[in-house]
Amino acid sequence: MPLYAPVDAPPPALRVPAPALAASLRCGADVDDASRTPVLLVHGTNVTPEANWSHTYEPGLRAHGVPTCTVRIPNRATGDIQVNAEYVVHAIRETHRRAGRRISIVGASQGGMIPRWALRFWRDLRPMVDDLVGLVPSNHGSTSLDRCDPGCSPAIHQQSAGSAFLDALNSHQETFPGISYTNVYTRTDETVQPNQDDTGSSSLHGGGGRITNVAIQDVCALSTSEHILTGSADPIAFALTVDALAHDGPAVPGRAAPVGCLTGPIPGADPVGLLARVPDLLSGADSVEPTDQEPPLACYVTASCLPAVAPAPAVAPSGGVLRVRVSPRRPVAGRTVRLRLRVHRREDARWVPVRGATLRIAGRRARSDRRGRIAVRVRFARPGLRGLRVRAAGSPARTVRVRVVRPRPRG
């Protein structure tokens, strides 16, 4: 397992040319010396700022008197997310400079997750950000994206559950003190999965930031909003966003949408204009070429190209680091196998078993017994690298990997 850079490591230099970064940011005139907290809008994978925001969130936030900026990530954010994040880093710094005050960020899907990469590896950004609102963010990747045949864009590889990128993103701590995190997800999400409860992909836990993880169905049980709608035009998601922006701390569902399903529409929204964007959303134009592997991690991720700093503490703010051992490490594709895991936590310089740790795999949940043991029968359909994500209260989640191999030919 790589030794990831500590959270207090010096911020790396941006590699994207300055003119490209400058051209990617568009702000309203009211952002300059703003009288209230401006919002940076970050779009998702395979979309543009216009498709994601211009018919819904931009007019809606303007109606609430909120100044806005949008950042345009090249190639519809289908390239290496580590590069995409540099556009967000620049956008945060520049919006903060122009406003002369802390800013908030609202992002959809990948756009709700990228700011976390920026905050994780560019420590100078943390005092600049007040709220981070993620709309169906891919914070822990998705099991539905692990089907690349013959290949996927780099961003899809990186957002697949168990990727090296996601392990680095969630290393050491998931949130930072002083920042409020609102994560809005939907149980009918067809893209970011699993998202059935607050142990799913979008939700965050631990690290020191104030957090609200809320499903659209927690407010309106009848809602069928899926991934795209929740990340662009769902009125409940918008109400939660506005509540987070208008108050200290993250959104409070009962305060944001006290009448549940009767939450009013987004002010000034243009649903016809949004529908007209659908063919453009499905075209895939300007996307990068598919590849059969994930981009390598940048050297700053493991601090191999940064000045030496003191190592991060081994104990998370709310508990010890998890150690997970799994066998067999190389299960055979097409066969049902009994996976056995042992989960321990570092406490007072020793490893102790963790009871009640949760493993989610193939739509099933298994919990560890009092000896920290988990056993589950599973069948992997195809060869490849698979991530097994284990969560335990009081510790950051841990992902371990197994290499699913092809069956040996007989004879």
Keywords:
single chain; 411 residues; alpha/beta; Rossmann fold; Immunoglobulin-like; 2 domains; seven-stranded mixed sheet; four-stranded antiparallel sheet; 13 helices; 22% strand; globular
Describe this structure in words.
The chain has 411 residues and is α/β, with parallel strands linked by helices. The protein has 2 domains: 18-283, 3-Layer(aba) Sandwich (Rossmann fold), CATH 3.40.50; 322-404, Immunoglobulins (Immunoglobulin-like, Sandwich). The chain contains 13 helices and 15 strands. The strands form 3 sheets. It has a 7-stranded mixed β-sheet with strand order 1-3-2-4-5-6-7, sandwiched between helices. Strands 8, 9, 10 and 13 form a 4-stranded antiparallel β-sheet that branches. α4 packs across α5 (110-121).
At a glance:
With 411 residues, the chain is α/β, with parallel strands linked by helices.
Give the number of domains.
Answer: 2
Which CATH first-tier class of the largest domain would you pick? Alpha Beta
Adjacency order of strands in the biggest sheet: 1-3-2-4-5-6-7
Q: What is the helical fraction, as a range of percent?
A: 10-25%
Tell me the span between the first and last alpha carbons.
Answer: 37 Å
**CATH topology assignment of the largest domain:** Rossmann fold
Low-confidence stretches: 308-319
Number of strands: 15
Overall shape: globular
CATH superfamily of the largest domain: Alpha/Beta hydrolase fold, catalytic domain
Biggest beta-sheet profile: 7 strands, mixed
CATH level-two architecture of the largest domain: 3-Layer(aba) Sandwich
Order of helices and strands: HEEHHEHEHEHHEEHHHHHHEEEEEEEE
β-strand percent reads 15-25%
Structural class: alpha/beta
Rg over alpha carbons? 21 Å
Q: Count of DSSP helices?
A: 13
Q: Residue-averaged pLDDT, rounded?
A: 90
